[in-house]
Amino acid sequence: MTDARPLGADEAAFMAVVRSGDSARFALITERHRRELQVHCYRMLANYEDAQDLTQETFLRAWNKRESFKGHAALRTWLYRIATNACLDFLDKRNDRTPVPSGLADVGSEVLYLQPYPDRMLPEDPQESVVARETIELAFIVAVQHLPPRQRAVFILRDVLGWPASKAAEALELTVASVTSALQRARVTMREQLPDRRLDWRRPATHELSNDERGVVKLYIDAHERNDLDGLMSLLREDLRFVMLPEAGTSSVTAKDAVDGWVSGGLFQPGYDDWRCITTTFNRMPAAALYRRTPDDPQYRLFTIAVLHVVDGKIAELIGFDATDKPWLDLPPTL
Fold this sequence. Notes:
The protein is an alpha+beta fold. It is built from twelve helices and seven strands.
């Protein structure tokens, strides 16, 4: 994320676009940054559809502000600055983009607007810090939502993307002292939200699923397709954390409470007893796409996504997402 010195090829080409006003060349140059900018917006907003919209807003703002680009910073840096401020403007106008009380003592709040991120839309370079698994997993994304928006921006720019304090301050129109103070407060909150996770985001990142994760998701799918409640229960840690989004009030903090809720909702009973599932990944985490067939329907239709956090061969966290009418999930709608 360092500034280009001397003027790089991207910057020189972009400045030529500015002089010519060629919108097609502008799109060609900026498009290569779309995926990483969308991940950045997703970290800020925790919602895939919002991230798509704000990435497009970033490109619109960049086009309208193109003459302000003088090549003093890398084009990439300039685009990140625009994207960050577009997200902050969005958050300033929305009162439904903060965690809400869960009603449970052990689960302080729920992020009802959280959506999973399709792995196919991550930047392709596995060495990029922007795709580090530790900073795209759902627990991290949820934890970041507990930061006030500007503090959130500081934390992402400094600790995730590795920007120096001076560059983050310039991007956010803050003093270096303000950025340093905001980062210190953000780190405290992140430690509170992720007490059992490592917090050094600059260490080498992992990307691949472990054998444990692959095995557990396979068993999870098998239990669903066989309507095996005992088998499903055996995969869950006793202190399982579960939530079904975007529904409010679905959080639970024990496996028994979660399973009781599933059963009372009709799981493995008529209408919810004919399943086909496929293994997938979201947010670089193991996941299962669950397809349900009802008695009057010849096809299995995409119903929910279950994203799993596996610890020592057991499911420690399960976040379910309504998957109906969401083509951006990039899953077949029927089986």
